[in-house]
User: Which sequence fits this backbone?
């Protein structure tokens, strides 16, 4: 719908700007604009707001009238008489709610028969579209709220681990995820629908997450969009240029060749975490690091210190540039 | 969630609503006035309320523009709604 400043006709949907918001109504005549309450003011008790008829001057309160004109893509418009009849049939109705049942909902219901508010729906979409990737990192054991693991299948998997340290890694990673889902997305684990992907990865229908662990450090990344995360110990003896021959793409090998010798092991270390994070992001079934290019990929890497060790944590996501790394006590983010 | 966790989340939401005031918002206290101290207008308040609904899975009923004056007022509402859920 587009808005024009012109004289209103019977059955028009009309509005008036009130600062940054609008007040809506259905125009019947100069003496009769049907609206869900008069223009709102601070302190108004919404439980007493009702659909009423008032002169145009009371609707405008000195503001400028705007008249709605249908555009392509709008729902089918009711005729002016049907619109006026719908508005009049609701005189005296209550149940106003600024978010869920406001003056714009009312006007759109009368004119189109649809319960829509571009204002509140737009703000809701804006919130849902906010890019977010939260990466929680914690050293275990850490205090947990309730020891139970859900879903049952995951608990059974964890309990089936014969190695106590591996069991602890999986247990605390899952517990870290539980807290992350609640703190970042307001989701309760017991209400989520967990499934396993073809590659055996745990997934849920309500959001995206990825887990990793290394030594006594657990990592959980949560997002509204696909995400992959990996943590590795900074280990120059393991991440050698020789290893790079096996895991790097041609472009990465060139990059390593241009890198100062003393910094190569660090780069290989970081490349590995990027590849694992990208692999998890992609949800593949077989990890072939040499086939995963990191150049131009959307990733973010941080170096973390804990208990005399250093770790690299990489998150891969469309929103990686805005990733928020949330470290528990005892962990320090090192300058990049 | 604890009261502090609710406040942390609320600050996060407020920063999304008004990123240009991030420093002020992160330094806010429960006593901070949403309008006079933090600078939220009606649309900003509406955004915060909708974002709270989305995050905390609660539905605001009978909410008026003037209901929330301070950060503490909003946290109280969320705590009450969560207790009733």
Assistant:
């Amino acid at each position: 719908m587009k808005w024009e400043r012109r004289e209103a006709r019977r059955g028009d949907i009309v509005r008036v700007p009130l600062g940054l918001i609008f007040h809506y109504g259905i125009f019947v005549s100069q003496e009769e604009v049907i609206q869900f309450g008069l223009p709102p003011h601070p302190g108004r008790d919404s439980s007493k707001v009702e659909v009423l008829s008032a002169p145009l001057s009371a609707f405008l309160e000195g503001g400028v009238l705007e008249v709605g004109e249908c555009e392509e893509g709008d729902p089918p418009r009711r005729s002016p008489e049907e619109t006026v009849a719908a508005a009049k049939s609701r005189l005296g109705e209550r149940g106003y709610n600024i978010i869920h049942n406001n003056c714009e909902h009312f006007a759109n219901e009368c004119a189109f028969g649809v319960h829509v508010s571009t204002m509140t729906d737009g703000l809701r979409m804006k919130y849902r579209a906010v890019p977010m990737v939260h990466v929680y990192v914690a050293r275990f054991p850490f205090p947990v709220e309730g020891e139970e693991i859900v879903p049952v299948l995951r608990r059974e998997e964890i309990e089936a681990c014969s190695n106590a340290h591996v069991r602890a890694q999986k247990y605390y990673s899952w517990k870290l995820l539980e807290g992350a889902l609640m703190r970042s997305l307001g989701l309760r684990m017991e209400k989520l629908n967990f499934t396993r992907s073809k590659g055996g990865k745990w997934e849920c229908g309500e959001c995206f997450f990825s887990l990793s662990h290394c030594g006594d450090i657990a990592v959980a990344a949560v997002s509204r969009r696909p995400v992959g995360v990996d943590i590795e110990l900074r280990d120059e003896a393991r991440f050698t240029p020789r290893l790079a021959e096996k895991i790097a793409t041609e472009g990465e090998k060139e990059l390593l060749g241009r890198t100062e010798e003393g910094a190569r092991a660090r780069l290989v270390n970081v490349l590995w975490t990027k590849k694992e994070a990208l692999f998890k992001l992609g949800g593949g079934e077989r990890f072939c690091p040499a086939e995963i290019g990191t150049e131009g990929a959307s990733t973010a890497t941080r170096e973390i210190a804990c208990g005399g060790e250093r770790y690299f944590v990489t998150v891969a996501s469309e929103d990686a540039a805005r990733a928020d790394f949330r470290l528990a006590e005892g962990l320090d983010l090192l300058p990049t | 969630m604890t009261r502090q966790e609710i406040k942390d989340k609320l600050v996060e939401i407020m920063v999304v609503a008004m990123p240009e005031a991030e420093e002020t918002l992160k330094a806010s206290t429960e006593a901070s006035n949403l309008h006079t101290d933090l600078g939220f207008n009606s649309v900003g308040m509406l955004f915060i309320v909708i974002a709270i609904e989305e995050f905390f899975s609660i539905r605001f009923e009978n909410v008026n523009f003037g209901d929330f004056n301070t950060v503490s007022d909003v946290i109280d509402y969320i705590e009450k709604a969560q207790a009733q859920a």
